[in-house]
Structures are given as structure tokens and as C-alpha cells.
Model the fold of this input.
Amino acid sequence: MDNLIRTSQRLVKTVQMDTFRYLYNEVNWDDRLIMIKGARGVGKTTMLLQHISSAFGPIGKALYVSCDNLWFTDNRIIDLASYHYDHGGTHLYLDEIHRYTGNWQQELKNIYDSYPDYHVAFTGSSMIHLDSALADLSRRCLPYQLYGLSFREFLKFERIADIPSVNIKEILDSTHSKEWEIINLLPEKVLVLFRRYIGQGYYPFYSTGTKEEYYGRIERLLDTSINRDIPLVETVDYETLHKLRHLLYIMAKEVPFTLNVQSLSQKIQVSRNTIIKMFDLLDKGAITRNLYSGWRSPKSVAKPNKILFDNTDIMAALSSTNDTGTIRETFAASMLAPHYTIYEPPTGDFLVDEKYLFEVGGKNKTFRQIADLPDSFVVVDEEESCIGNRIPLWMLGFLY
Done:
């Protein structure tokens, strides 16, 4: 136990306090049971440690513990909470809870019910695992999801500009006032900065090492998600895991990637239903993003209308040759996803919150495909500013 306490104190003492993620101020840290889920590498651990440092200091009533610590080989979470509470502790922060081999859902329920003045926050990189457990904790738990860096946050991390986020209505405002407000606050051309971000700015560790090292780390994150996270909730053999990696390889190499379930099932030697299930697992693991028409239910048994990678940095890590149109759509979807629902419409690229229709393209993109449709907008790359119902692509990077 002493080692756990010393480790917590050391990590809290040394965590960087210069930059905070967007979610930090959105979390109700006073709630008694908090779940923070998110893909591997997006910064959940740092956010926990920053909160402890800010609210309690390294030697306080809060304790940080990673659930892959060897201490849990012979001990339980509830034992840790009991000891901590009896010794004056009030807040417990559990990281990587999906790595815990016991029944953590039941133990957290027991802690919540048995210690009414005790607080627990926990994170997990296996979003598949956490999603399956959320139903058991839904009455007690307040869930949040942390995404990777937006373009806005990238500028903040680079110390170029610290600009507040905007909402979708402000972006779509015909006066484009927010657009010009942001442009005037930037010390460099926005398109130059945007190119620096695309493909090498989504994960907070983007600045550690060379570009090749950054991409190598992303590949290792993907391997870990496939080899460790998926088997936590699905009974899969080694051959199936290998075929999941093969599916990713096909997606990365076929430029642009077009979803053809029959063709994929032949290439990977699995059934059509297995292909759909594989895409469902990759989507839940924040590796791909599956877009549906919006009316099919349940999604897990329906064929997605479109498959994108979760973010542009995964695309860049897996392939050096990517389709420009797919990069644009992938960026747009990754920036919209944290606060808005996205569907694949019959016409256009995205239907946002079942209201706004987006067509994404380059500076020569026209309204031809979405002409005369209400609440329709062309989202344009390679343009610093636009007029009317044309929206610069980079503006979506300020949604969170």
C-alpha cells in the first residue's frame, strides 16, 4: 500500500500543469462516481493527475492508482477504498480500470453504496469494455468521453493561440463573424497552421519524437486495442485478431476505400456478418468510425453506409498515400463527433443532428449535389474564408 501512495505522490508532483484538455472544465469533479472513457493515448491519465494536483496537491486526501499495478494481484479495489477511507482519504482515482481482473463494476457499486461521502473517478481505454459495463452503473455513474486534440486545442498546445470553442450555429452563421474573429487572432495564416495539424496533431504526444516515431506509437496503440481490449469483451481467437489487422491494412491501402462487404468477406475469408461485426468492434474501439443512415436499429446488426478511420492521424500512420477527399471527410467527422450526431444521408456527405446537410470538398466544390435542399452547406478545404452557405473546413476544428 505504501508503494501505491508513494507512486501517486510522485506522479501528481511531476504532472505538467501548463495545458489542460477541453474536457477538464466540463467534468463535474464533485460527483461521487465518474467514468472517463476514451481511446488510448488521448490524455486521460494526465487529466486525472492534473485534477488531483490542482484540487488536493501531491500529499492530500486523494489517491491515484493504475489498475494494472501488481498490487491488485492479491488485492481488490474495494480493499483499497476501505483502507484509504479509514485513513482519511476522500477521493480515489482509478486509471485503466479495464486492466483490473476482478469484478470492478460490482466493487464500484459496493463502494458507492457503502461510503456515501467517498468519491471515485475511473478511466478506461477499452471503450468496448466500459460501454458494456455502463448499464450496470447507469444509476450511479456520470460518464464522459475524452477525444483527441481538436485543431483549436492543437493551437493552444503549440502556444500559438488560446481561442474559445464555437458551436455549430456560430459556424453556420451567414455573417461568418466567428470565422473572421479567429483569423484575426492568429499570428500566421490559418491554412498553414491547419496543414501542420492534419495528420500529426490529434494525439497529445504528437510533439514527442520524430514523425516516424509518432506514427509508430499510433500503430502500437492500435495493436494494443485489437490484441488486448477487444478480447476483454469478445471471445476471439488469434486468427480473428489477425484478420482484424488485415482489414485495417486493406482500408489503409485501398485509396479511396469503398465499403463492399461481399468483396471484403472474400479477401479476408470470413462471412458477411463477421465483416459487419468486425467493423462494429473497430468502431467501438475508436479505430474506425461507422456511419449509418440514422434509421436502422440496432446498428450492430446493420451494414454501415460508410466507414472512415477515427481520425486523420491513424490514416497517416497506416499509409503514406491517402485520398484527399477521405482525409477531409475523416477530419470533419472527428471534429463533429464529440458534440453532434452524424449520419450518412441519401445526398451529401454528412447529416448533422438530423438537420444540417454537409457536402465536403475542395475549393472548387459546388452545391450541385445538394442544390435546393434546406439547411445545406458546402464545407470547403483550401479556403481561408468563405461567404454564404460555404464553410471553411478548418472551422470545424474549433467545435471543441
